[in-house]
Structures are given as C-alpha cells and as structure tokens.
Amino acid sequence: MAKKLRGAAKELTKASFNRAAKRIEKLDTRMKKRQVPSGLRLIGEEIMLDVKAARPGAGVPVDTGVLRSTGRVEGPANDEVTLSFGGAAASYALEQHENLEIRHRIGEARYVVRGIQRWQRDGASVKRAMAHLAKAIDAVAQG
Questions:
Q1: Which position among 35, 43, 97, 143 has the lowest Cβ density within 10 Å, counted as fewest Cβ atoms?
Q2: Euclidean distance between CA atoms 110 and 94, whole angstroms
Q3: Which of left, alpha, beta for 44 (phi over 0: left; psi -120 to 50: alpha)?
Q4: How far apart are alpha carbons 12 and 60 in whole angstroms?
Q5: Reduced 3-state DSSP string for 42-111
Q6: Is the residue at 15 inside a domain?
Q7: Which helix (H) or strand (E) holds 28?
Q8: How many domains does the chain have?
C-alpha cells in the first residue's frame, strides 16, 4: 500500500511540475513578444531623458546643443535597445564621450555610460532630470 501511495505521489508531483513548466513557457513567450521589448524601450527612453537633461557634471556636454539634439533611442531589436549620439555631431560625439581630459561646463565625459549607471528602477533618475529641466526652463523664461 505504501508503495502505491509513493507511486501516486510521484505521478502527482510529476504532473504538477509539467503544469508549472507549461505556465513558465507561456509566460516566457508572452514576455518576449510584448512586455520585455516595451520595457526595454521605456528604460532606454528614461536613460536618454536623463542624459539629455545636461547639467554641470552630468549628462551630454552642451555648447551649441547640436550634440544633445542627435540623441536617439532605437529598438528594441533582438531584445536590445540602442542609445546613440552622432548625426550632425558625429565628428566630435565620440571624442566628447571618451576623452576624460576635457572639462565640460555643462555635461560630462562618458555621458551615455554614466546615464546608464544613474538609472534607477523607481524613476528617481528621471525625476531628478525633470526637476533640472524645469529649473533650466524657468531660468531661460526669467531672463
């Protein structure tokens, strides 16, 4: 009798694992099709917003604004999102990003990398960027 119970318990456990595996497969498929790509895009856009909200010591370097205007978020493609700067500023975008010796009045070297490092799940990095943008807009409006 005990042997039969163990066999039945094994079958129930096996069936339970199979049902769980099927649910996980469905969830994985659904995530790949919908949620993951749109979530990646949103994260990319949040990071780009923070980077474009240039301020002393943070964000893309700004002199004339051309480099900032070229920031783009592309994708998702193959579960990847690309953040890039260049376009009309391509001749100096890489130099501004990689040269740690350049001292920027507004912005920083490694602006994309540091924007990624600043990103936080709770949206705090975006809130800080928006607060900075609001201050900059007020300053321009006042004078």
A1: 143
A2: 9
A3: alpha
A4: 58
A5: HHHHHHHHHHHCCEECECCCCCCCHHHHCCEEEEEECCEEEEECCHHHHHHHHHHHHCCCCCCCCECCCH
A6: no
A7: helix 2-30
A8: 1
* Segment 82-113, tens digit of pLDDT: 999 988 888 899 999 999 999 999 999 999 99
Question: Poorest-confidence range of 21-25, 71-75, 121-125?
Answer: 21-25
Euclidean distance between CA atoms 67 and 107, whole angstroms: 11
Residues 99 and 93: their CA atoms lie apart, in Å, by: 10
Domain containing residue 60: 39-142
Confirm whether 16 is domain-assigned. no
Q: Does the residue 116 lie in any domain?
A: yes
What's the pLDDT tens digit per position in 6-65? 555 556 566 665 666 666 666 666 555 555 667 788 889 989 999 999 999 999 999 999
CA distances 19 to 11, 23, 32, 75, 124, Å, are 12, 6, 20, 34, 39
**How much is the pTM?**
0.64
Considering all CA atoms of the chain, what is the largest pairwise distance in Å, rounded to the nearest integer? 90
